[in-house]
Amino acid sequence: MVFMKPSMPAPPLFLFKRLRLIRFLSAIPLLVALLVSAGPIAAQQTEERRGSGALLNQAVDQADGKSVRLGELTTGNSLTVLLFLGADCPLSQKAVTESVIDLAKSGSPAKVGLLGLLVARDDALDIQRLKDEFKAAFPLLLDRNNQLAGILGVTVVPTAVVVDQQGKVLYQGRINDRVEQLGKRSVVRRNDMREAISDAAKGLPVRVPKTPSVGCPVELRKAVPDSTGKAEYYRDIQPILYKHCAVCHQEKGVAPFSLANYQDATLWVEMGIDLIERKIMPPGQAESDFALSDAPSVPSPQELRLLRQWLEEGMPKGAVPANTRALPPTDPESADLGKPDLVLKPDGPMTLAASGDDMYRYMVYKLNLNRELKVRAMRFIPGNQKVVHHTLIWFADSATQARIIADKGLNAYGLLPDDSGPGYGQSAMLGKYHKIDTNKSRLPFEQIGGYAPGHSVWKTPAGCALSIPEKTDLVVQMHYHRSGKVETDFSSIELYLAKGDINPAEDFRTTNINDDKFLLMPPNQRRRTNTAWPVEDDCRIVGISPHGHLLTVSQTVTLERPDGTRKVLLNVPRFDFNWQRMYTFREPIPVAKGSKVHVSSLMDNTSGNPANPFKPPKAIFMGEATTDEMVFPFVALTIPKNSRWNLQQGFFSGYRTGIIATTLKQQFGLDDQPNQASPAAISGDKQP
Length: 688
Fold this sequence. Notes:
Layout (H helix, E strand, L loop, with lengths): L12 H6 L2 H31 L7 E3 L5 E3 H5 L4 E7 L4 H16 L6 E7 L5 H11 L5 E3 L4 H6 L3 E2 L1 E6 L4 E5 L5 E3 L2 E2 L6 H10 L14 E2 L15 H12 L17 H16 L23 H12 L29 E3 L5 E3 L6 E7 L7 E9 L6 E10 H8 L2 H5 L32 E7 L5 E3 L6 E3 L3 E9 L6 E3 L2 E6 L8 E7 L7 E2 L4 E3 L2 E4 L4 E7 L6 E9 L5 E7 L10 E9 L4 E9 L15 E2 L12 E7 L8 H19 L21
Parallel strand pairs: 3-4, 4-5
Antiparallel strand pairs: 1-2, 3-7, 6-11, 7-8, 9-10, 12-22, 13-21, 14-20, 15-18, 15-19, 15-22, 16-17, 16-20, 23-33, 24-32, 25-31, 26-31, 27-30, 27-33, 28-29, 28-31
């Protein structure tokens, strides 16, 4: 790019008026250079305005409505963090706590201030709510009309902006990289804001001065309720939201914000459209050649066009209907269950610290009965929907569980200082409590169900029942989120027993398919795995739960019949470790002996995978920890009661492959890179 020297005079205007055409054409390159350079010069001038005292002269509003100059609030600070927040944004709420912790851990000898700036329609009541619920001890102010956000180019909350005494921006972006894309969480690999403060306090250039913020968009579009258009809220938009979204997105639902009324819709629909088009919402979308009874409801392209048209037309409210539309039930699967026969709870509630990595914790729901239970349905009820993300449920023999619970090391494993409660974490220490007998076709523990938002009930097919052996307990692996404040959970399980309607010739069982050829995923590669599971007896497949870890980006399960024909049982094109569930077929699928079930996973061990637990990528081996990897889908099926098919072969082969992987890592030094994940993040997600 050509720039004019500062001493070079600008070409006089008459030059372009009076020169002949050929001389005019020869001057065009210089003109183009001048025009092209205007963009960088303007950008530089914008940066200069941001770095001058002009930023500190901007006014913000206090909760009492009085305006104050930003510079008055930063006086005496060597550095100030301007934390842009949205009071209803879950990631913003967590940022209230995380920013304070990171500020304390920055080790800065300089005085660093922290100011919270609420954007868009947030008001004084929202300030008080953040103070009450999330214990915000730093000043919270209102950025009216997004004035400061506009000057700094903040379009997403939360966003942290670190400025010096003169108001010069030294860093702008996320607090850390736990969430690089909405719906894709990993362990924290870099505390960006903390490191920027540390650099700046030492008088060093900030190593990474800008990072992308991830969260909720700053509301720029203003609703005009009285506007007119082809799409109206009550007539056109509310039916779409109630059909596809409101089962989770309502006040008593599992989702973090509501879409129950007009005001909710004007605030969140624009972000929702973006997430739907990227197939992040609704979570857990799946495809199959067979009808699924519980697949997430996805808006059609026509419905999406209508939602977008409504936004562009000013979000007209339309006429309020005479009859109010009823919200969908938050747990529609439980409607016909009746009264539970047993209700189980753990020994006590679980308390979670406000901030930190997600927790995986095994909770024991004691049965220890001297009789076998025949169960037709099971329902998991989260005690605190804000923190219970999903669960996996097993039965396991009571005596072994009692010994594990008594192990103080396992009880404390994975807990942060402010965590407390019953249960235990997962570590290699668990191995000494479980003896694997490969001669038995049934293990003393077996997965029997689970829970995911919008899918809390697990049922057996008509005429079948799940057998829970005598002297066993239910063991639930809880996947807990942290909300930004101390939370307590006390979840329960309801059991519904079969009443004499059991087919005596058929057993309902669960099993898993393990790719015993998968040993490791090399760094900086994307590749697909393939394995085939032989069907050794006639059966009916009831449901499938795909499974992998943080490198798995898609998983496909295909049925190959003895005649060679193939059907897709289940394809999850955007597998997400944070959204695991069982997909149940509307009718169990008959499968003949001699068939094969093929499982293929696409794995991404590159820096382009936002869920990759290691940056830069490293070789990841087969294993049970979250930061390991595996191909391990679960299958619910019925088999003949007299069948000799050993359904635990997948578990046995996974156990053997895990031993090989561990040996390679430890004995041959292939795992010499430090694990960057916290104990809470690597507590695993498999059999206890």
